[in-house]
Design a protein that fits this description.
about 300 residues, Double Stranded RNA Binding Domain, binds ligand SHN, binds 1,4-dihydronicotinamide adenine dinucleotide, precorrin-2 dehydrogenase activity, transmembrane, EC 1.3.1.76, porphyrin biosynthesis, Met8-like
């Protein structure tokens, strides 16, 4: 294909970060510093199941960092109650780690740590100094298996936090169940049709895509073990992609179904729904009030 035929592909706009979900379980991470910033780093690190070596004098530890050190076992956190001396001077060597983070208030020392890490090709993040970061942190949220991170490419971290909060508010309450349910179904499917790639892999993927398109998040979240089993027995085994209706599963009541149909027909968006809700509430309260006044009047007579 000649390049002139590629005009429909997205244009490259440089300056972005390579967003990943880094699997750090059992990896070794060096965290230098124990203040407020380090306490945030430590929390996210511990959630991955990595092994943290933390160097920072105890007297200036952030209370959360001190707490984590006190309750963790030594596998999760190796704590050294002292100052880090420097890449040449210290017996702790950055090259022995999979990742290095500094959150200290000594710019010169951070800079030396960064240089040593880059020499050893160890990814490093120096809080406060973007040019000395091989990767940035972002504003994160976690709901079980679901993780979302917002990055503004270093432009406005507080804006990232505000956007993350908005996303948090807009997430359906039962998103975790829906994701867990799909995870279980994929696991069961893998047992039934094992192996990597090839025509079977393609069929497996097409089938899963079909399922996710046919079942909404509510329906996925409410899926029982029995329904999952039937999806595989009556669906996968017979080369069919079954939806909730095909299995007689109705997660919504008829009122819910009817309301969805109305929403679709009228084209209700969130804003319109609010206006309609307030209007309906007003009508109900108004009717109740009028009825009350009328009742009181009839009592007086
Ligand atoms: C480049 C980056 C490197 C990195 O640290 O990885 C970086 C750099 C710097 N941050 C600074 C300041 C502040 N950082 C925050 C908050 C957060 N900062 C985070 C990430 C990042 N910060 C990376 C880019 C993220 C992105 O791309 O969007 C978050 C998202 C994640 C986290 O740190 O865990 C977390 C919010 C988490 C949450 O709440 O959800 C606040 C707000 C607050 O504290 O409430 C302020 C004060 C307000 C302000 O200054 O804007 C300064 C000092 C500037 C100065 O001296 O003036 C620098 C250095 C500089 O910019 O030069
Ligand atoms: N990237 C970001 O999001 C932000 C970065 N910062 C910067 O990050 C750095 C840390 O911030 P905070 O945690 O608020 O500071 P802090 O002053 O609360 O903590 C600094 C910690 O580093 C320790 N420390 C100092 N020298 C050390 C050494 N040689 N070895 C080991 N530990 C040492 C101190 O004992 C203390 O525990 C500061 O430079 C700050 O300006 C601050 C706010 C946001």
């Amino acid at each position: 294909m000649s390049t002139s035929e590629s005009h429909h592909f997205p244009t490259i706009v440089k300056g972005s970060s390579f967003l990943l979900a880094w699997r750090l379980e059992n990896r070794h991470v060096l965290l230098i510093g124990g203040g407020l910033v380090a306490s945030g780093r430590l929390y996210y690190l511990l959630e991955t199941g990595c092994r943290v070596t933390l160097i920072s004098p105890r007297e200036q530890l952030h209370p959360e960092t001190a707490y984590r050190i006190d309750v963790s076992n030594t596998e999760d956190i190796t704590y050294l109650d002292r100052k880090y001396l420097g890449p040449e001077e210290d017996e702790i060597k950055v090259g022995d780690y999979d990742m290095v983070l500094t959150a200290i208030d000594e710019v010169g020392l951070s800079s030396r740590i960064c240089t040593a890490c880059r020499k050893e090709r160890v990814p490093v993040n120096v809080a406060d100094v973007p040019p000395e970061c091989d990767f940035y942190f972002g504003s994160q949220l976690r709901r079980g298996p679901l993780q979302i991170m917002v990055s503004t490419s270093g432009r406005g971290p507080k804006i990232a936090a505000l956007i993350r909060k908005r996303i948090e508010e807009s997430l359906p309450a039962d998103i975790e169940q829906a994701i867990d349910s799909v995870g279980k179904l994929r696991g069961d499917l893998r047992k039934r049709a094992p192996g990597v790639g090839g025509p079977l892999g393609q069929r497996r993927m097409n089938w899963m895509i079909g399922i996710c398109d046919k079942w909404n998040l509510d329906e996925l979240g409410g899926m029982t073990d029995e329904v999952r089993q039937r999806l595989l027995d009556e669906g996968w085994d017979k080369k069919r992609v079954l939806g909730p209706r095909d299995l007689g599963v109705n997660s919504r009541s008829w009122v819910g179904e009817w309301w969805s149909a109305v929403e679709e027909a009228v084209g209700l968006n969130e804003e319109r729904k609010k206006v309609l809700g307030v209007g309906l509430m007003g009508a109900v309260l108004g009717t109740a009030g009028t009825a009350g006044v009328w009742y009181l009047k009839t009592q007086r007579r």
